[in-house]
Amino acid sequence: MTASAGGVVKAQIWNDPSARPYVEIERVNKSFGDFTAVKDVSLKVYKGEIFCLLGASGCGKTTLLRMLGGFETPSSGRILIDGEDMTGVPPYERPVNMMFQSYALFPHMNVEQNVGFGLKQDRLPKGEIQSRVATMLDLVKMGEYARRKPHQLSGGQRQRVALARSLVKRPKLLLLDEPLGALDKKLREHTQFELIGLQDKLGVTFIVVTHDQEEAMTLASRIGVMNHGEIVQAGTPSEIYEFPNSRFVADFVGSVNMFEGKLIEDEPDYVRIDSAELGATIYVNHGISAPPGATVWAALRPEKVFMSMSPPAGDDNGAGAADNVVRGNVQDIAYLGDLSIYLVRLATGKVVRVTQPNTSRHAETIGWDQQVYLSWDATSPVVVTR
Amino acid sequence: MVALPYLWLLLFFVVPFIIVLKISFSDVALAIPPYKPLLEWVGKHSLAVKLNFDNYAFLFTDSLYLHAFANSIKVAFLSTLMCLIIGYPMAYGIARAKPAVRNVLLLLVILPFWTSLLLRVYAWIGLLKANGVINNVLLSLGLIHEPLTMLYTPFAMYVGIVYSYLPFLILPLYANLEKMDWQLLEAAEDLGCRPWQAFYKITLPLSRNGILAGSMLVFIPAVGEFVIPALLGGPNALMIGRVLWDEFFANRAWPVASAVAILLLLLLVPFMMWYQSVQARESAGAR
Q1: How does DSSP classify residue A367?
Q2: Does residue B134 share a domain with residue B271?
Q3: Which residues form the domain of B44?
Q4: What's the average model confidence in pLDDT over A272-301?
């Protein structure tokens, strides 16, 4: 998992209260009949960002994108683009282009005609259309396929044509609906970085819809995690990954071990959680706002769990000897090359997922049915209350 | 089993066609059947074939036949055009309707086929005649003061043809439009098209094969249409089907009638071949 800060966006522009957002979504709701697809979403996206709307299918992310494009009308609330209220503005008058999930290439036109379509629509002079189409096709490395029809292209090539077509009009805002969904894994990874490079070069603001958390992590300057029509958390990829605000986000982005427990000590600088599931206490060196005795969850990423055959030395973050250590039995090992995943069964029956990088070529010390100690740093678990 | 359709074609298309072709080259005779044989024994050992081209030559000397051909093509063409104007929006509407509604609409299009064509044409006589339903309604509403003459006019004939052939245009066009990816229209609008421009630049070209297939299915039979002009069109509706009928049954000029039939077939062959190629393209999925 790499968390790169994609885009040309000025560092943390969203934290600057004086910055003017390029896209403002203000308390937008959308319902179809009695089904609410988008629930009270407010969001600000800044110039040059790659903002990813991440969520499972049916979470309302595509509906939100379609409202930005003008293909759906909000039931309430409003959308501003570059300070202008977009209510009632049809798609063909918005300073926005969209790349459709199906690519929606016109089957009766060749690549060149597809890309030039929007420019021709704007009645630009022929020469300019030609040169802009040629430049754009070169940019997406499709210059030699200009005369092909869409059905003569591979999935990846179609994706490039669709991208070129949506960028050739030089929109200030590009909406991308699952842009890499139809590509295989290798091509997808490759294209992700190309997409970032292109966005960087053209300075366009991207709003991307995806269900693939890895894609969101790679592309995004910020991610908005959506669930049941709401944005549950918005933040940079590392914020989302390291500081999830709920069990849903922790679980949806990356893999996580979730331990349910009772809050037994709640001090300003630390909390201690008694987890029956874990069979141990969890010591976390930051305070949270929850009443003592409340049920909370400690989310612990698999790569932040240490595994050893001898009892670990306690850390110096204030954790006691009994905190943050459990014993278990290695139940399963998945060797992935760069890292290995261990499933460790505790005495309570709970299975903990641990990943360890394979830094040494010959080390093969921990095997099946091995008794191991699992421990973690007091800074590692994230305590969530919902 | 495989040969069965070919046997069918041989018996009910090729053989009758050869018979008609043969008659078209023979002389008229006052006999039963009313033409002379092509083959004749001359002397003991020689068989003479006598091909008479007069029948074909005759069609080009009397302007009646060329008129009838020209008029048939005109009527078929205009009927096809009217079917297209009425049928395209209907096919489009059905294709874009919700699946449940769609089936009902399709059923409504097919429903007329459950009654015989003749009955439906007679029903139009009842609607169009001087004291028919339409005139009576218009009179009682005070919109007109004396009945309109509609029956036995070209108007009635066009109404009849367009009404009868409309489903043949709607069904293939619907089948074509139904496969259309409507997201293409959103893409076009996204790129700056107003809805009507998107229709003109995307939907229309993509439904070209459906338009052609439907039009051929109306045009080809409409050229030779006999029943509707005879029942609704009145005495002045000069259609080739009518001429054919008169030659066969009124004049008993079988050879001339056969020549008319052969010429009509030759006229329609290019259109049929075009229709076939459109069908082949359509089923191949290429656009």
Answers
A1: -
A2: yes
A3: 1-52
A4: 83
**Which residue of chain B is at minimal alpha-carbon distance from A170?**
B191
Determine, for residues A69 and B190 on separate chains, whether the beta-carbon distance falls below 8 Å.
Answer: yes
Contact A106 B197 (CB under 8 A): no
Report how many domains make up chain B. 2
B46 with B88, same domain: the answer is: no
Query: Based on the domain organization, do B48 and B69 belong to the same domain?
Result: no
Cα distance from B109 to chain A (closest Cα, Å)? 29
Contacts (Cβ under 8 Å, ≥6 apart) of B33: B254
DSSP reduced 3-state for A278:
coil
Is B175 found in the same domain as B119? yes
Per-residue pLDDT at B182: 92
This model of the complex carries an ipTM of 0.80
CATH number of A255-384: 2.40.50.140
Which pLDDT score is estimated for A359? 82
CATH topology of domain A13-95+171-248: Rossmann fold (3.40.50)
Give the C-alpha distances (Å, rounded to integers) separating A216 from A51, A57, A246, B98: 9, 15, 18, 35
Q: Closest Cα to residue A174, out of A201, A156, A148?
A: A201
Q: What letter represents residue B225's amino acid?
A: E
Q: What value does the CA radius of gyration of chain B take, rounded to a whole number of Å? A: 24
Min mean pLDDT across A163-167, B160-164, B183-187, B283-287 is at B283-287
Closest chain B residue to the Cα of A71, Cα to Cα: B186
CB contact under 8 A, A122 and B206: no
